[in-house]
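> example.struct
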């Protein structure tokens, strides 16, 4: 099991200093509709590399190249804790998984999850959490709002 990790406060400006990527993908809703969206932000993998979890023994920061040392899950929550999703580490490290601060060439609006949201094209929209308040690394499968309502925890398509 991974040891308790320290809490680090990270600002949106720090995230914007990570390499900037654009992904144009289809946001697919579990209810059947979809929309093509142009997302801009930092890769979640770059965030994890910049702010790494501890290794399994808690000694030094884990490296993305050593997957055995990475915790198997990432948990994301809104600032109020009312909405939360869990990701497996492979989905979190997918090159198209972004921490987004722009949508369709404009800064995110409140309606679309400002100041920071997840865009993960390999998952249905229920995993694309808006208004990210915390990101945690964990060795235990995190709780997931929609999985608690009966949807598949992985919610891939």
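> example.seq
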């Amino acid at each position: 099991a991974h040891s308790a990790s320290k809490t680090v406060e990270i600002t949106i400006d720090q995230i914007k200093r990570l390499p900037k990527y654009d992904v144009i993908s289809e946001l697919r809703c579990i209810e059947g509709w979809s929309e093509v969206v142009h997302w801009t932000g930092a890769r979640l993998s770059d965030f994890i590399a910049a702010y790494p979890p501890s290794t399994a023994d808690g000694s030094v920061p884990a490296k993305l190249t050593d997957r055995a040392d990475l915790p198997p899950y990432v948990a994301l929550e809104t600032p109020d804790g009312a909405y939360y999703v869990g990701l497996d580490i492979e989905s979190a490290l997918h090159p198209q998984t972004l921490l987004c601060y722009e949508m369709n060439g404009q800064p995110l609006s409140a309606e679309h999850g400002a100041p920071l949201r997840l865009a993960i094209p390999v998952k249905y929209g229920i995993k694309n959490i808006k208004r990210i308040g915390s990101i945690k690394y964990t060795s235990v499968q995190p709780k997931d709002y929609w999985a608690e309502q009966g949807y598949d925890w992985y919610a891939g398509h």
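> remarks
The chain is about 15% helix and 30% strand.
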